[in-house]
Amino acid sequence: MRFSILGAGSWGTAFAKLLAENGHEVLIWARRAEVAEKINKEHKNEYLESIELPRAIRATTDLNELQLFSDIFVLSIPVKHIREVVKHVQPPPKVVLNLSKGIDEDLKTVSQIIKDIWPRSSYAVLSGPCHAIEVANKFPTAVVIASKDVEFAKTIQLAVSNSYFRVYLSEDVIGVEICGAVKNVIAIAAGIIDGLGGWYNAKSALITRGLHEMVRFGLAFGAESPLTFMGLAGIGDLVVTCHSPYSRNRQVGEKVARGLRLVDVLSSMKMVAEGVHTVKPLLKLAKDLNVEMPISREVYEILFNGKDPKLSIEQLMRRPLKMESNFIVTDLPSFL
User: Residue 88 CA to chain centroid, in angstroms?
Assistant: First the structure.
């Protein structure tokens, strides 16, 4: 198959490597000419410096060439740029696979953005615990692909699965997208705990209660099942993003907690920490949906209003006491 990948960052590049190793033709779009040139001539990318790329991968800076090449059009750029970039891709691709995670300033997930711009395109989203460097190094990884077009999803499942990359299927597109968006915000909070001292009790509680925020918000936003959040896109991705040294969102929280200014932290990073850009639209949506998200609210206050992280933690701990929420699960056998 022929895959066009919009975005030559670490994940887009690692996914291109996976596809090429599975025998597919791959063309990857880079915003900067020097990145495309290095991929074509040296088979290297600065975003995955230690990785030798297959010679079958080609790179371009021409969006028209990217679109004409494709059987499957892959999105792998920051969510805040997707609307602006893809509107220049014409004619619309027939099928779209999204790798990006977040909510844009118009308060929409990627599936909603694509429906606005390319309403007739089939859409699928791939998500889960999949750090680019580990996939590029062929470390065992499992993810989920969600689509309303089940046959399309099965085609991608077969195309990308191999001995180190295992793909499961889901029809809960919104649920999988919300998992990917909210977990990045919770990972910033996890990094803040790491920056304050790496308290294991606190971090475990944070991840657990962060998962509750993900489920509450996701179900209110239109996710089909709480079980989506117990799967690879939910708790799987949440755990790795909150703990991994590769997590950009966790790194942001850790550095801010140690006293660095957010603007300096972001300017020092090669790639985008999506949670920083997601938290504001997330809280706007939560307000509209009347969903309580106390951890996400404190992340926003710390990042953008300079609130003392220790004060945020104290206020979270002193919130009114209550029962631990339980979500009723009726389809457990099929989940297992």
Answer: 23
The C-alpha atoms of residue 276 and residue 283 are separated, in whole angstroms, by 12
Mean pLDDT of 299-311: 97
Per CATH, domain 174-326 is 3.90.1700.10: no
Q: pLDDT tens across 126-136, in order?
A: 999 999 999 99
Which residue, 41, 59, 49, is CA-closest to 5? 59
When pLDDT is cut at 50, 70 and 90, the band that residue 327 belongs to is: low
For the domain made up of 2-171, give the CATH fold: Rossmann fold (3.40.50)
The answer to whether 45 and 22 have CB atoms below 8 angstroms apart is: no
Asked about 183 being catalytic, the answer comes back as yes
In the chain, list all ranges with CATH 1.10.1040.10.
174-326
Statement: residue 334 has pLDDT above 70: no
Cβ partners under 8 Å of residue 196, min gap 6: 257, 309, 310, 313
Distance, CA of 145 to CA of 124 (rounded, Å) = 7
Q: What's the whole-number average pLDDT of the chain?
A: 94
Interval 98-143: pLDDT, tens: 999 999 999 999 999 999 999 999 999 999 999 999 999 999 999 9
Q: Which residues pair with 74 in a beta bridge?
A: 5, 97
Cβ(252)–Cβ(192) under 8 Å?
A: no
User: Catalytic one among 183, 270, 307, 310?
Assistant: 183
| Strand intervals (E) in 247-325 | none
Which ranges of 123-260 does DSSP label H, i.e. alpha helix? 132-136, 150-160, 173-196, 200-221, 237-243, 248-257
- Among residues 296, 227, 306, 293, the alpha carbon closest in space to that of 263 is found at 306
pTM of the full structure: 0.94
